[in-house]
Structures
1.
Amino acid sequence: MVRLDVGPTLVVHLHGGCAAPPSRVRVDARLDKSGQGVLLAFPIDEVPNMADDRQLREMTCDPKFRKVLVTDGKTGVGQAVARAVIDAGADLVWVGYAEPWKQVPGFAELEALPQVALLPLDLSDSRSVKQAAAEIGGKVDILINTAEVHRTQGIASRSGVETARAEMDVNYFGLLRLAQEFGPAMRSRGADGQSSATAWVNLLSIYALCNYPAHGTFCASKAAALSLSQCLRAEMRQGGVRVINAFPGPIDDEWNQALPPPKLPPESLAKALVKALKDGVEDVYPGDVAQEWLARWQDNPKVLEREVSL
Amino acid sequence: MAASTLISLAADLAAGRIRVVDLTQTLTPEFPQIVLPPEFGQCLPFRIEEVSRYDERGPAWYWNNFSCGEHTGTHFDAPIHWVSGRDLPNNATDTVPVQELVGAACVIDCSQEAAADADFLLTTDLVRRWEAVHGRIPPRAWVLMRTDWSKRTDPVAYQNYDATGQHTPGPAAEVVRFLIEERDIVGFGSEAIGTDAGQGYHLRPPYPCHYYMHGAGRYGLQCLANLDLLPPTGAVIFCAPLKIMNGSGSPIRALALVPA
C-alpha cells in the first residue's frame, strides 16, 4: 500500500529495490504485459541494476540481454536502430538486407560489429520472410520493422500505380508477411524466462494519421500499416508481446531532401525507439514535426487535414 | 520434302538423336532483375504467393499466383520495348511474326574474353574471325553471345555492380549495325541481364543493342543459360514470348534443338 502525497492510498506494483516500509517511494505509470495501465513504485534513489528488476522488466521491453531483429539494415534508420539497441545492451542483432547487389554506405561497418548477424530478408518476397522466420523466428525477442519504400508523389504527379504498389507491397503487405511468419512464435514466447519475446516495433509515420498530399501514396501505405498494426497489437497482446508504433515526422534521408528542415536524424529516431522500448509505451511520436502534427491532430483532425492541403 | 523433314525430326527427337536444351534460368524470387535509378519506375522481380496447398484454402489442389515484369528472368524483348521501335508494324508480343521465333542460332563464344574483362564488348572484327572458322552468319539467324555469365549463380556476381555501375559483357555499337545491315539477323541474345553491356549507357548511342535492334524491328533475348551446350552453328532455338496484348516483352522458356 502506498499513500500518495496528494492523498489517496493505492495498491501498486513494487520495484524490488524499494526499502522496507514505511519509506518513501516514487510512483510512476506503466503498461503491464496485457497492455493495462498500472502504477509501479520505484525507490527514490537509483539502486544498482535498477532496470533488471523482474517486475519492471515484465512491464517494459528493455533491449538489454535480448535478441533483436532489425528488418532492413540498408537504410540510415535501420543502421542507427541496430547501433542503438547494441548500445542499449542487446545480445545479438540480426540485420536484414534485400537486393544484395546494391551496395550502400555504412553497411560493411555495421556488419563488422560483433553483435551483428546479417540475414537475407526482403519484405516484398513471402518466401524470403518465411525462410528468415524459419531460421531465427523462435529466437527473436524484439522485432523492429524499419523496412519501408518511400517515393514522393501524390495522385496527379505520377501516372500509374506501380510505384504506389511498391510502397504498399513493403509498407503494408511487408508488415502482414512479417506478422504472419514471425508473430505466432513471438506470441508464444512472451513468458520465456528473463529474456522473453517482448516487443514488436513498427516504423510508421506521422503522415499515417493525416495525409500529406505531396507524399500522398506513401501516407496511404502508412495509414494501411497503422490499421494493420492495431490488429497485430490485439493478437500479440494475448501472448504478452507489446506492439510499439513510431510516428516520426520527415526523416533526414534522401527521399525527404526536398523538404525544408526540421528533419529527424536517424540517430534521434533510433534513440526514441530505444526509449519507447525501455519505457514500454505503445505509441511514440519522435521529433518536433511529429509532436506538432500530433497536437494539431488531437486538437482537430479536420483542421489539420485542411491546413496541410493548402 | 518439308513434311518428311518434320517426320524425321520427330523420329530423331524420339530416338534422342536430337536433344532439347533448356536455355532458361529458373524463375525464383532471388533471381536478380534489372536495376534502374530509383527515381524511375522499376521492373518487378519474380514473386510467388501460394493460393492453396491441399488445405483449407483449397483441399485437393495446389497452385500459386505469381507476378513479375515483362523483362524478368530469361526473357524476350519486342521492338516496341525501345523508343526507336515504337512506330514499327507488328512490334509487340502479340503481333510479332511467330515464324521468326523459331530459327537457326549462331553461338559466338566470348567466354574467355568475358572472364578476363567483365566489360568486354563484342566487335565486328571478332564476328568476322568467328565467320572465318564457322562460316558466314546466314540471313534471319539468331546470334547468341556466349559469355558463361549464366554460370554466376551468386546474384551479386551476376549483377556485378561497383561504385561506377554495372559491369557485364555485351556488343559494341558498331557490331550491332553490322549484324543488322550486313547479316540481316533476326535477333541478338545474351547471358547477362541485358542485351547491352552493363556500361552500355556510356556507348553512342546509349544502349546500342536496344536502340538499333529494336529500331530495325529485331528482337532481344537476355538472361539465357546453357549456351555452352550449343554448337557454334547447327542449333535451332524456340523463343516465343507470351501473347501479351501490346506487350514489350515477356519471360520465356527458351529451348534449343541440337544434334546429340
2.
Amino acid sequence: MSDDDSKRIQSIHHDLHSDLPAEPALRVKALESLLIEKGMLNPKTVDAWIEVYTEEIGPKRGAAVVAKAWLDPEFRRRLLADGTAAITELGFEGWATAHFKVVENTSMIHNLIVCTLCSCYPHSVLGIPPNWYKTAAYRSRAVRDPRGVLAEFGETLPDDVEVRVWDSTAELRYMVLPERPAGTEAWNEGRLAALVTRNAMIGTQRALGTDSTRHR
Amino acid sequence: MDGVHDLGGREGYGPIDVDESEEPFHADWEARLFGIVRAMTRTASWSIDWFRQCRELIDPVDYLTRPYYDQWLQTYAAMMVDSGVATVAELASGRSSDSIQGLAPPKTPESVEAAKRATARFDRDTSDAPRFIFGQSVVTRRNGWSGHTRLPQYARGRRGRIESLNGAHVFPDSNSAGKGHAEALYTVSFASAELWPEASGRPDRVFLDLWESYFERE
C-alpha cells in the first residue's frame, strides 16, 4: 500500500466522519437502505446470518469440541495435530477457521488468546467474540500483563505456572483446550460440554467449576 | 503502519469489563451490521489485509472511542467509496443516486447454509525452502513501515525462538496492496522478560505468527 492509498483512505474516513450520522444505529439503517436500493442486499439474508450466529454458531460448538477431546483420546490427538481437520469432522469448519490451532492447558501451562492488532477470533467454533475481547483494554494488556488480566477475571495463577499468550498476528486462529476438572470421570459428553465456558476457551478462565456457582 | 491500532503493551486503557453479558450482540444495530457484512454483494475483491489497513486508517480518536461494529461500518463504507460503489452522500442519506449495471441478484437466505461452512485458506504452494528451522533463535526487524504490517511494535528488534513452521502464507504487507505473494510463516515465541521489564523472573512466553521477512538476516 502506497502513501497515496493511505492518504486517499484517510481522506474518505474524514468525509465519512463529517457527513454520516453520529449515531451508529442510524448509520446502519442508511447503509442497509442504500444496499437494498442498489440491488446489493436481500434483508432476509441479513436475518438468516443473524439467526445462524445467534442460535447455531457460538461457544457451545467449542464446548462440544472440548468435551469430545476429554472423552476420546484419539480425537484429542487429531485435534491437537490438525485443528481444522478435527472440527471439520463435526461440521464446524467455516469463517476464520481454515488454519485452526488448539493449545492445551496443563497443570504447569496456561494459555491465553488475544489479537493485539485487530480482533481475530475463531468465529465458526466460538461465534461472535465478547466485546471485551475487542477493546483496547484487553488487547493492550493481554500480552504484557496476562496475570493481571486473569486476576480481573478471578483467576490467580501460581508463580511457577507458565503463561503462554498467543497473539493472532496471522491467519492461524487459536482456542484453548482447558483441563478436565477432577471428579468428572463418569460424566457423559453432554454434561461435560455444559461445564465448558467461552472464557475458558479464550483462556480468561482456568478452573472449570463442577457446581453451578460459576456463571462464566 | 505505526498506528493507534497497534495496542499490544500500551498502558492506561483501564480494567476489562468482566461482567459483560453473554449474548452475541448487545444492540439490534450490531446484529444488523454483522448480517449486512455477511450478506452484501461484493463488487470488488477486498482482501482481509485491505480491510484491516482501511480500519487502521480510521481517525485515531474514532478508533479508540467508536463501537467495534461501527468501525466495521466505516471501514466497509470507506472501501465502497474508494472502489466507486457508493458516494459519501449516498451512505449518509441511505438513498441511491446511481444504479450499478450488470450486478447479479443479491445473495438469498438459502445461500447461508453453504456459506456458513465456507473457509478461506491463506497458505499457498511454494518451492522456496524456509530459511529457519524449529528451535532456531531469530531477531525481529527493528523498524516497521508506513504500509500494512502484522509485526507489532512490541515484538520488533527482539530475540525469539522458532516454535513451528506453518508453510507459506499470503504476506499481509504486500497483500493489502493487492500484490500478495506467499512466504514462510513461523510461530515464534518470546520470553515475556525479553519483551517487558516487569516480567523478569517469570516463566511466561508470548507467541506470535511471523513471516520470514520480519526477521533480521544475522
